[in-house]
Design goal:
Layout: H1 3-23, E1 37-41, H2 44-54, E2 60-64, H3 79-87, E3 90-93, H4 102-107, E4 115-118, H5 119-123, E5 129-132, E6 146-151, H6 159-176, H7 181-207, E7 213-220, H8 223-229, E8 232-238, H9 248-260, E9 265-269, H10 275-282, E10 290-294, H11 302-306, H12 311-326
Parallel strand pairs: 1-2, 1-3, 3-4, 7-8, 9-10
Antiparallel strand pairs: 5-6
Helix pairs in contact: 1-3, 2-6, 2-7, 6-7, 7-12, 9-10
Length: 327
């Protein structure tokens, strides 16, 4: 049994014991003794959408599980996290492979009366498979020329997906707290207007440029964004890859694309080592090409939130970066 599996088994056993104690009346339903509506979100985008929709509703409390900045692909819940999920009123998660631990958390607290919102279910047929395009490394170290390696978890990197999801979040909040439904609906209308305005700005930028291909010396979690606005791309790895070192073959093919398309920028994602991007540039005919960062909103921390980070602000910053590169 792997270390991760052992940790989840341990957490599950602790959770079962704790739930048993609660059911015997030895602890209050909410750990702070309040009647607040407790909402737990696994990633930042869900948290920020829920925070925006619930703003002004005094009896809601929203928690973001990955607030220490851990990437969703690397997160494993603590025993305390599992207990809080068992005790919350609404649990929101994406539902991809990186959150396979959720099955145990929900199974071991199925009688809690908690409502669950799985975003893959909300989006249905809009969920895309992760592409393994030509030049990409696979997990064995080879290269691929095909597609379809599983579902792409990075659904939040589509403003249109965000719009759909926010409606479902609002519906869930209204169902749990009908007395505040007017606040939730009003906030939703305002937030959807912001999402749609930003979507229109992205569309204006994409429609106004002839340069429609992005080169990533990194993972590529932006398929939803690229498909929304008609961008093509070439990248070292698919979005959920754990690889950090690209083969010479992959670097050479990316360098070849940089030359062929006469591009002058190689992208990376936030908190990334730019060594692959530098190698791609060094092996191309355009050694003066630059490196730019697009934020995949996968590792937003408590400190970032304190400094004003929001889903809208990060997506707007990405738009400004694209505008600078494409025009």
């Amino acid at each position: 049994m792997s270390l991760v599996s052992k940790l989840i088994c341990f957490a599950s056993a602790a959770l079962l014991a704790a739930v048993s104690l609660v059911s015997c009346g030895s602890a209050p339903a909410n750990t702070d003794g309040s009647d607040k509506l407790n909402i737990i979100c696994t990633d930042f985008s869900e948290y920020d959408w829920t925070r925006a929709i619930s703003e002004g509703a005094a009896d809601t409390e929203v928690r973001y599980l990955l607030e220490n900045g851990t990437d969703i692909h690397n997160y494993q819940p603590s025993v305390q996290d599992m207990l809080e999920i068992a005790d919350c009123d609404l649990f929101i998660y994406v539902g991809g492979e990186s959150e396979s631990w959720v099955d145990d958390a929900l199974k071991n607290s199925s009688g809690s009366g908690r409502r669950v919102l799985r975003l893959f279910d909300v989006l249905g047929q809009s969920v895309k498979t992760e592409e393994l395009k030509y030049v990409m490394e696979d997990h064995e170290g080879g290269s691929h020329n095909d597609s379809g390696s599983g579902y792409d978890e990075h659904i939040w990197l589509s403003l249109r997906n965000a719009d759909t999801i926010c409606v479902s979040i609002c519906d869930a909040l209204c169902g749990l707290d009908p007395a505040s439904s007017e606040i939730y609906r009003s906030n939703l209308d305002k937030y959807r207007a912001e999402l749609r305005a930003l979507d229109e700005e992205y569309r204006t930028v994409s429609d106004g440029t002839d340069s429609r291909t992005l080169i990533f010396g990194d993972r590529f979690p932006f398929r939803y964004l690229a498909d929304d606005y008609g961008f093509d791309y070439y990248a070292a790895f698919p979005g959920c890859s754990a690889e950090t070192e690209a083969s010479f073959d992959t670097i050479a093919r990316l360098s070849e694309k940089l030359n062929e398309l006469e591009l002058d920028t190689v992208f990376i994602i936030e908190n990334s080592d730019d060594s692959i991007a530098r190698s791609v540039i060094a092996n191309s005919g355009n050694t003066s090409a630059g490196i730019e960062t697009l934020d995949s909103i996968q590792s937003v921390s408590r400190d970032d939130i304190g400094k004003g980070a929001s889903y809208i602000s990060i997506m707007r910053k990405n738009l400004e970066t694209l505008k600078k590169v494409l025009y």
